[in-house]
Write a structure and sequence with these properties.
Blueprint: H1 2-14, E1 26-27, H2 29-32, E2 33-37, E3 42-45, E4 50-55, E5 61-65, E6 68-79, E7 88-95, E8 106-111, E9 122-127, E10 138-140, E11 151-157, E12 161-166, E13 169-175, E14 190-197, E15 217-231, H3 235-238, H4 240-246, H5 257-270, E16 271-274, H6 293-302, H7 304-307
Helix pairs in contact: 5-6
This protein binds 2-acetamido-2-deoxy-beta-D-glucopyranose (4 copies).
EC number: 2.4.1.207
Family: Belongs to the glycosyl hydrolase 16 family.
Active site: 106 (nucleophile), 110 (proton donor)
Amino acid sequence: MVRLLVILPLLCSVFLHVSCAENPSIVSFHQGFDPLYGELNIIPYEGNNSVQISMDERTSSGFHSKLMYVHGYFETSLKLPGNYTAGVVVAFYTSNEHKYPFYRDEIDFEFLGHIHGQRWLLQTNFYGNGSTNRGREERYDLWFDPSEDFHRYGILWTGNRITYYVDDVPIRHVKRVDAMGGDFPAKEMSLFGTIWNGSNWATAGGQYKLDLNYGPFIAKYSSFVLKGCPFYLSPKAARCSDNLGLVGLENSDDITGEETGRMHAFRRKLMTYSYCYDRKRYVVPLPECVFNSEEFEHLKKFDPWTFGSGK
Ligand SMILES: *[C@@H]1O[C@H](CO)[C@@H](O)[C@H](O)[C@H]1NC(C)=O
Ligand SMILES: *[C@@H]1O[C@H](CO)[C@@H](O)[C@H](O)[C@H]1NC(C)=O
Ligand SMILES: *[C@@H]1O[C@H](CO)[C@@H](O)[C@H](O)[C@H]1NC(C)=O
Ligand SMILES: *[C@@H]1O[C@H](CO)[C@@H](O)[C@H](O)[C@H]1NC(C)=O
């Protein structure tokens, strides 16, 4: 990530048609985003730097970036609603479903609701070119209560990698392999923040439902980082991703050894689901999956039914 942040400003000056922000800086809600739905429940605050979105008996709500981007680093600080939030999904993700309804790409952070006293579950997932019948979900417990304070959630997306960060911990790192074909997100995407009713699946597989008596459910988003290559409808801008490749962004596809250590420490302790080890679902693991015996042992202990022999 450090390397990407160094490289992007260089790219912006070398390739003038790629209009990047000058600095890896924080943009206000007002600069970067527009309301998407449920405008009644979208309230910018701190001079438009931050925004709270909520769900109550009137509506759920969400916002989206003004621009679409090809590759980049996208981050927000997020504070979740507390108390009983079963069925309440809070998401921060990139998608282009509005533009490519049948061939969409998507990279997600989704919080799946929680019941007071229990932890929130965080889910990550991605789709490429409409690969929605091949979910690549992972779920994790967190080492903090995300409703108590703001924490940073970041998505780093290049032509060859997707890395998900929570604060400074890379919790998931996907390297593109050729066998993935179009399943690796490649087209321009917008960034979204949404809160909605996921009662039928989110919390304990839909066992616990949304209860509006505990509302309004308020999610606060702040400190947005939008460091990507904006996509414009011109032939020049369409070459953005090629240029990123030419200048060497594709060489920064690995996280550092130190980051790898923190990622493995996180995953072998707090991961609760990974499609890579779910042989009931994928008899042959999807091509980007890298087997890690410590992760596998941890998952088997956590959920023997899904990851063990079913006993
Ligand atoms: C926040 O954004 C709104 C909508 O564009 C604008 O009317 C308002 O002046 C902004 N407030 C501040 C403090 O910048
Ligand atoms: C995406 O899917 C469409 C329709 O199947 C196909 O024409 C296109 O080549 C695919 N793109 C990639 C990158 O796989
Ligand atoms: C939430 O979603 C569930 C399942 O789709 C639905 O049964 C329920 O009526 C919804 N609740 C509200 C308040 O919209
Ligand atoms: C949780 O919500 C219930 C119902 O609204 C309320 O009575 C209780 O005080 C809340 N607890 C906390 C810790 O906010």
